[in-house]
Amino acid sequence: MTARNILSWSPTAIVFDCDGTLMDTERHWQEARNITFRTFGLKPPAGFAERAKGVHYTECGALMALETGKPDLAHDLADTLLTTFTALVDQDPVTMPGAAALVQLAARHIPLAVASNCPRDMVESCLDRAGLLSSFSHVVVAGEGVRPKPEPDVYQEAVRLCGVPPERALAVEDSLTGMESARRAGLRVLGLGPCPPGLQAQQADLWVTSLADQDLVWWARSRIGA
């Protein structure tokens, strides 16, 4: 799918990731990981932040334990990571540039959902404090038989609840983990952030550096609900 095709297409539902896509929380996850490593007297392995991006917090705890040679600490690392992250988000919930405007515009025309690897109470609390929760028809999170990204489950469930076939829905994602999940579920993908080199660029149908991108804003105003 080319950029031209996606910008001339009208989705019948949009499913958003939350962390780093709607909410500016990736920096909180990074700080929480660093604090958690320090709490246990561990040193973050080189490049760990990129490998951990978009990963469910329990799997992140396991990865932290594996890469530091402390497999017995996986559960404690995950618990500390989540507690630390929650405290940081409570202090500073901020939306990503352009996110609120895009959500509010799209919600007037088509069903919206959130698909996240984070716990439900955290996702809903963040969105509520940002004034966005009421714009979403559904919030789908990993757990209770729904496998986390990169498995396709959260996106499959989101489009099912929205009542649309996956090929008519758009996923908005900032992590390659989430993009893989959405593509496996059959959605078209809008990638948020710098376009990566090589084959990773193919994870998204279109890349934008911000949800305030002028071409994207024009598309949303002219095509959503058309």
Overview in brief:
The protein is α/β, with parallel strands linked by helices. The chain has helices spanning 3-7, 26-39, 48-52, 57-67, 74-91, 99-107, 120-129, 153-162, 176-185, 214-223, and strands at 13-16, 112-116, 138-141, 169-173, 188-192, 206-208. It has two domains: 3-24 and 94-223, Rossmann fold (3-Layer(aba) Sandwich), CATH 3.40.50.1000; 26-91.
Overall mean pLDDT? 93
Helix content: 40-55%
Name of the CATH class of the largest domain: Alpha Beta
The major β-sheet equals:
6 strands, parallel
Terminal-residue CA separation: 20 Å
Task: Look at the structure and name the CATH superfamily of the largest domain.
Answer: HAD superfamily/HAD-like
Reconstruct the topology from this structure.
Elements: H1 3-7, E1 13-16, H2 26-39, H3 48-52, H4 57-67, H5 74-91, H6 99-107, E2 112-116, H7 120-129, E3 138-141, H8 153-162, E4 169-173, H9 176-185, E5 188-192, E6 206-208, H10 214-223
Parallel strand pairs: 1-2, 1-4, 2-3, 4-5, 5-6
